[in-house]
Amino acid sequence: MKIHNFSAGPCILPPEVLNEAAAAVNDFNGLGLSLIEISHRSKDFVAVMEEARSAVKELLNLPERFDVLFLQGGASLGFYTAAMNLLPEGGKAAYVDSGTWSAKAIKEAKLLGNIDVVGSSKATNYDGIPAFNAPEAGTSYLHYTSNNTIFGTQFSGTPEAGVPLVADMSSDIFSRTFDANPFHLIYAGAQKNMGPAGTVMYAFDREAMGHTGRTIPSYLDLTVHAGKDSMFNTPPVFPVYVTLLTLRWMKANGGVAAMQQRNEAKSALIYTEIDRNPLFEGHAQVDSRSHMNATFRLTDESKAERFDALWQSAGISGLKGHRSVGGYRASMYNALPLESVQTLVDVMQALESEG
Amino acid sequence: MKIHNFSAGPCILPPEVLNEAAAAVNDFNGLGLSLIEISHRSKDFVAVMEEARSAVKELLNLPERFDVLFLQGGASLGFYTAAMNLLPEGGKAAYVDSGTWSAKAIKEAKLLGNIDVVGSSKATNYDGIPAFNAPEAGTSYLHYTSNNTIFGTQFSGTPEAGVPLVADMSSDIFSRTFDANPFHLIYAGAQKNMGPAGTVMYAFDREAMGHTGRTIPSYLDLTVHAGKDSMFNTPPVFPVYVTLLTLRWMKANGGVAAMQQRNEAKSALIYTEIDRNPLFEGHAQVDSRSHMNATFRLTDESKAERFDALWQSAGISGLKGHRSVGGYRASMYNALPLESVQTLVDVMQALESEG
Fold first, then answer.
1. How is domain A15-252 classified at the CATH fold level?
2. Is B311 a residue of the active site?
3. Of B67, B97, B172, B192, which one is the catalytic site residue?
């Protein structure tokens, strides 16, 4: 039976990416060696790293002044790294608190400077993207989480803040086009639209770096990594390679604009059903809804057992909501086909038709 | 042709590990899903992480008070993390400078306290393990690099220092038995004897943690990770899984004591030839020689082209020395069969017999 993988992350990857990744674990580039047993300094792997960095620049249409790195530690280390590289000693930054990951970013940044939380939707269990106050004078950047996986909310576009932007785009990078010019830094764990768990992408304006007055530990210094072409130390070889395969897949399938079209079609399908079907209601405010993660619940909890049986027997996997929201969450990352969303909608309608 | 993979790291892994890893990328545990597209919170992956942590405890015979984690950032982030967790504010630690990686560890630790370099072999291009002075009173720990991949030197055993030990064992973990009791922390990048690049193992005495008086960023706080069973954030799923497969392979093949026997046989074979064959000389002092990485050079450089042709045509790969030493380096990690070392020795003898 075909499995419809709605997992929130790590999540579905294109089948051709998985096939090619598995093959490379056995024999990479016909070398007679596995991808994971060759030197990261070999010309075969250096080519992987360079192509992956270039593909990000191309797919995101990054300005010339941007550098791209593939590092480790996930966005969780990124929260600290972002402030370490961009928040001057004694300086100030503005943060929007739109969910669990935003709150974690704020916690880490507070270790390094004055953090002004300019807007928060915490009081309503993060059911929407909050309005926020204009950052005060002297604010180095505004940080936000573009998509909130847990709550199913998403900034509808790039916010206007009057200061440079820093964004954790872990769960919607490559899902829609945007202009990178207002950003000093974009970072994203790979394990949603980009690849497997184990690498985190940093894209940053190199001119914005080096102004904190702080001595930065080597691994946390983005300029150190950039100076070594993202090979300051041994990179996570397999995660970077599978990320490259996924970036190639995006390029071969119309790039980010085409991903966006597919994603909008998928989210329109599920949200239309959530709004139409009296058995379901959404968690997120309508104007904050995410194209990546649709959060919803049954209006009649007594039907939960039956609904769970129906979607499980339809081959749907990973639909349970996060414990802080409950209900269900349909994660519809780039690699999820429209067909899988249609299968879920069919199940929702089947439940309704049972009366 | 069979390839004899002498790569310094990432390096050779057992063929059965590579086969099983490739299969899991296609379908993991018969789930119909790839290992890399399932949730790290799924019971299938939680079981992987738990078994991997337990296998380390068993293979290293760690005391009950030790915790084991699989994190990211390699030993390069470990240099800073070690000091962050163990060097008190205003405190002092002793470091032995036995190679490039030791020097890097010292550089990062100096950001956090007073570092006393108690011994160094830098003046002789790190050709041996230096003698070192007893740490002064008030020293929190002595840090050393157990094996120096680049220079082919290795501590012959656990040093006696009179203070707790911290060791970067990236390139000889699981290669020989040792008593973990004198250690506060052992850390090791996976990509030599343990698995593929992309995860780093920390094994530490939990009672030694939490005494620095410092607020530690979450990702760098080993107690934060331990409190979340090494799942504080999304772990590097594939590197951890392949590490588990390699740990299972070690257990099935006699454990660390058996690895040590094989490694001693391999290193005896190559060093005997280096010492016997007038065409070759070793880089490392004899009493500092590494069982993992044998560094050597031709006594007559004019034979380099011929020697290179010979070993390449014998299927030997990854034999070039690091640029800071030159010559050749035969890395003989756990998964390298004795047969591969014999092939290299045969080639060295073939060169000699050409006169």
1. Aspartate Aminotransferase; domain 2 (3.40.640)
2. no
3. B192
* Chain B interface test: which of A4, A6, A29, A36 (most B C-beta within 10 Å): A36
Q: Determine whether the interchain pair A197/B36 forms a contact, defined as Cβ–Cβ distance below 8 Å.
A: yes
Residues of A in contact with B77 (CB under 8 A): 72-73, 219-220
Give dist(CA A25, CA B116) in Å, integer: 44
CA distance A314 to B132: 67
Residue B64 confidence class, pLDDT cut points 50, 70, 90? very high
- What's the mean per-residue pLDDT of chain A? 97
* CB nearest A36 (choices: B13, B37, B111): B13
* A293-298, strands of its sheet edge to edge: A280-282, A293-298, A328-331
Query: What would the pLDDT profile of A58-88 be if each residue is shown by its tens digit?
Result: 999 999 999 999 999 999 999 999 999 999 9
Catalytic residue numbers of A read: 101, 168, 192
B37 pLDDT more than 90:
yes
What average pLDDT does this structure show over A202-225?
Answer: 97
Superfamily (CATH H level) for A255-353: Aspartate Aminotransferase, domain 1 (3.90.1150.10)
Output the furthest CA–CA distance in chain B (Å, rounded): 66
Position B355 scores a pLDDT of 83
Confidence (pLDDT) at A355: 83
* Distance (Å, whole) CA A146 – CA A168: 6
Handedness of CA B316, B321, B323, B326 (dihedral sign): negative
Residue B177 per-residue DSSP state: -
End-to-end CA distance of chain B: 27
Share of chain A above pLDDT 70, in %: 100
Asked if A74 and B233 come within 8 Å (Cβ–Cβ), the reply is: yes
Ranges of CATH 3.90.1150.10 domains, chain A:
255-353
Number of neighbours of residue A321 by Cβ within 10 angstroms: 20
ipTM of the complex as predicted: 0.98
Q: What average pLDDT does this structure show over A49-58?
A: 98
Distance, in Å, from the CA atom of B352 to the CA atom of B324, rounded to the nearest integer, reads 26
Provide CATH 3.40.640.10 ranges for chain A.
15-252
Report, as an integer, the average pLDDT of B291-295: 98
pLDDT in tens, B294-320: 999 999 999 999 999 999 999 999 999
Contact: A22, B26; criterion CB under 8 Å: yes
- Separation in Å, CA of A38 to nearest CA in chain B: 6
Q: Which residue of B has its CA nearest to A242?
A: B36
Q: Record the pTM.
A: 0.98
Tokens representing residue A189 in the block: 């764990």
Task: Report the C-alpha gap between A12 and B37 in whole angstroms.
Answer: 5
Would you say residue A290 has pLDDT above 90?
yes
| HSE of B78, CA atoms in CB hemisphere, 13 A | 32
Using the beta-carbon criterion (under 8 Å), do B237 and A21 form an inter-chain contact? no
